[in-house]
Write a structure and sequence with these properties.
- This protein folds into 2 domains: about 45-275, no CATH class; about 330-425.
- The protein contains 16 helices and 15 strands.
- It has helices at about 1-20, 30-40, 60, 70-80, 125-140, 180-185, 200-205, 265-270, 280-295, 300-315, 315-325, 335-345, 355-375, 375-395, 405-425, 430-440; strands at about 45-50, 55-60, 90-95, 110-120, 145, 150-155, 160-165, 165-170, 175, 185-190, 195-200, 210-220, 225-235, 245, 255-260.
- Strand 10 and strand 11 (about 195-200) form a beta hairpin.
- It is globular and about 60 Å long.
């Protein structure tokens, strides 16, 4: 233990020196405690249970989770979660993404949930039909309300190459359903040869693929808007107990915090079937996303979040600790602003049930947050765009589109976010070298 302690002290010293070069504030005690905790976590069981709060998850994930907003996330989870059906459907709801890292993500993006769903049935085909009915019932039941609006559902895979809304969709790709298409239970499309075809919900259910539901929620207590999503990982349990993932892959559990202690039995049953090389596969998936955000859809904030998860899971704790501190810097709050501008746009559409006053209030909150947390030219630029967006919300009442103002504001904000994260990340030689391997 003394050897590990000495090693952690050396790492803390290096982190402090790097933080000084980066020009970021560093809580030395918290950094040292995190390094010690993550070193100790390498021993013992993978899953940690917090009996007092009733949450559990992978030992590394639990180091970054705070109970401070647990009641809020459980309440929001009541909207997005699927209910158990005794003898037929078992579920386990968890937080994922930045919501599961509330101890370090001072400015989280969306409220991302992840739900394991195990369907017990005679056949896989029956399990797919049950899943299709559950998702459609859930979508229709939560289509619209005083504080929420369903935005999109991913379910089913394209049976062939088609054109939908003038966009080509590849065979096997995930089908995205609007609320209107959900109600109709079908999507109008064309073949590449121009022939009209209809994709029906019940016909694509046999190949459910990637399943996800997205809502915009206006929290009346916090007086803020949030994008809430639920990603499903669905398995079929045959009568002989065999477990089969309906999308062909059972997701690992390295970035999830489960919200209910009663979910332990289903989690334990399913986790036994996670591949022995799940960590390697998970890291490979994250690295593909890092590559995408460094080269194609340039977003250094998203790349930083993926790199943090890679580093903390692969023993590169110094690099992880430094990125961890970046999430608490004032400039990183613009990542949240960037996300919420999209949320405002989605919730202000003509058919939205969310009052425009709630959206205007969100704009006011963003403006005040930027004024409080930023300074100099960055503050002036972002506030100017947010004020224009706030004015455009008045025009929205008359039926005018926000599209131009939204795109302009988001482009400006993400540009500042990218500059901040790029400058900080490339200042650390180890992180810069890691990024350069993707840039070729």
């Amino acid at each position: 233990m003394s050897k590990n302690l000495s090693h952690n002290q050396q790492n803390t010293t290096r982190i402090i020196e790097s933080a000084q070069r980066l020009g970021i504030e560093l809580n030395e005690n918290e950094a040292a405690q995190w390094l010690e905790a993550i070193s100790v976590s390498q021993e013992g069981e993978d899953i940690v249970f917090d009996r007092r709060s009733g949450v559990f998850g992978h030992k590394v994930s639990m180091l970054d989770f705070s109970e401070k907003d647990l009641a809020h996330f459980r309440k929001l989870g009541a909207l997005v979660e699927f209910e158990d059906i005794p003898g037929e459907v078992e579920t386990a709801l968890a937080l994922s993404g930045s919501a599961a890292q509330s101890k370090i993500q001072t400015y989280p993006g969306d409220a991302d949930y992840f739900e394991r769903m195990n369907i017990l049935s005679e056949s896989q085909e029956e399990a797919c039909q049950i899943l299709g009915q559950l998702i459609r019932d859930k979508a229709l039941a939560t289509m619209t309300g005083p504080t929420y609006q369903l935005m999109e559902v991913h379910f089913g895979s394209y049976p062939q190459d088609v054109i939908v809304n003038e966009q080509q969709r590849r065979k096997g790709g995930s089908i995205s359903w609007t609320p209107e298409e959900m109600e109709a239970g079908e999507i109008q499309a064309q073949t590449l040869e121009g022939e009209d075809i209809t994709l029906k919900w019940e016909n694509v259910a046999h190949d459910p693929g990637w399943c996800k539901l997205d809502w915009v929620v206006a929290d009346p207590i916090r007086n803020e808007l949030v994008n809430a999503s639920n990603m499903l990982d669905v398995t079929w349990e045959a009568p002989d107990g065999t477990i089969t993932p309906l999308d062909g892959f059972l997701d690992p559990y390295f970035q999830e915090v489960y919200l209910q202690e009663e979910s332990v039995p289903i989690f334990e049953k399913l986790s036994q079937h996670v591949s022995a090389n799940a960590l390697e596969v998970y890291v490979e998936q994250l690295e593909k996303e890092v590559n995408k955000y460094l080269n194609k859809d340039i977003n250094y904030g998203k790349a930083a979040k993926r790199m943090y998860n890679i580093f903390r899971l692969t023993g590169r704790y110094q690099e992880a600790a430094l990125i961890r501190e970046l999430f608490d810097e004032p400039a990183s709050m613009l990542y949240q602003v960037w996300s919420l501008i999209r949320t405002m746009d989605e919730s202000s559409q003509p058919d939205s049930s969310i009052p425009i006053e709630r959206i205007q209030s969100q704009a006011d909150r963003l403006i005040m947050s930027v004024i409080t947390d930023l300074e100099g030219e960055e503050e002036s630029v972002v506030v100017r765009h947010l004020l224009r967006l706030r004015d455009a919300l008045e025009d929205q009442k008359a039926g005018q589109s926000l599209t131009d103002e939204v795109e302009t504001a988001r482009d400006e904000v993400i540009n500042i976010v990218n500059n901040f994260f790029y400058e900080k990340l490339t200042t650390v030689p180890e992180i810069r070298g890691y990024m350069e391997a993707f840039l070729g």
